[in-house]
Structure formats: C-alpha cells, structure tokens
Amino acid sequence: MPRYTQPKKTWFYPVDFKIKAVELSLKDHVMSKDVAQALDIHPFMLSRWRKEYREGKFLSKPRYNSNNELMKKLPNKKELNKIKQLEKENERLKLENDLLKKWQRYLAEVHQSDLDSSNDTEKN
After folding, report:
1. Of 25, 14, 27, 10, the residue nearest 58 (C-alpha)
2. 40 touches 79 (CB < 8 A)
3. Percent share of the chain, pLDDT over 90
C-alpha cells in the first residue's frame, strides 16, 4: 500500500451550506443518503450536522468583519432594477399561463359538448 506524503485535505463548509443541507434532508420523502450523495458529502457528516442542528449549534449568526463586507452583500440600484424587471415579467407570465389554462378548459368543454350533441343525434 502506498504511503501518503501529504496530509488529507480537510474541507471547510460554511454554516449556511450546512443549514441548507440539513433542512433539505429533513423534508418529507427525502432520504438523507440521497441528499448527502447529491451534495458530495459523506452521509455520516450529514448526520453529524443534523445532530448539531438539533442541538442549536448553527443558530449563531455569522459576524461580519467590517462594514465593507456588509455593504458588499446589499444589492445595488442596478440589481434592484433587475429584480423589479424580473418580478414584472414573472407576473406577466403568470397571467399568460392562467389565460392559456382557461382557453384549454374552454376548448375541452366545447369539444365535450360537440361529442355530447353528436351522441344525441345518433340515438334519435
């Protein structure tokens, strides 16, 4: 067996990542093993994170080292405009989708009434 000359790589996972992984694994009809495999982590690590989550070790908010880091996280005017534009487009697409669903229902009703009327004429 070959000897390892370098130490094993230790991965650092941010608290937000751990919380999201745990919350995903706690959903109904989701297996922890599948979540761990999708995130490319060992299932035992996820179970340890779940235990720490239950114990409340992840509840502390991350602290910012400076005001500059906090300012970097806030969206600027360009991003806010983009968000507003996307929200408007999303609303428009929802309305279009609703209209198409109503049209589809109307066509199904017309088709059904045509079938019913053709069946009535065949009986007479």
Report:
1. 14
2. no
3. 33
For the full predicted model, state whether its pTM sits above 0.85: no
DSSP string, 49-96: HHHHHHHTTT-SPPPPSSHHHHHHHS--HHHHHHHHHHHHHHHHHHHH
Burial of 32 (0-12, 13-18, 19+ CB in 10 A): middle
Give 22-34 pLDDT, tens digit per residue. Answer: 988 888 888 888 8
Judge contact between 60 and 53, C-beta under 8 A. no
7 dihedral zone (left: phi>0; alpha: psi -120 to 50; beta): beta
Q: What digits encode the pLDDT tens for the residues 74-110?
A: 667 888 889 999 999 999 999 999 999 999 999 999 9
Tokens encoding 31 = 């297996």
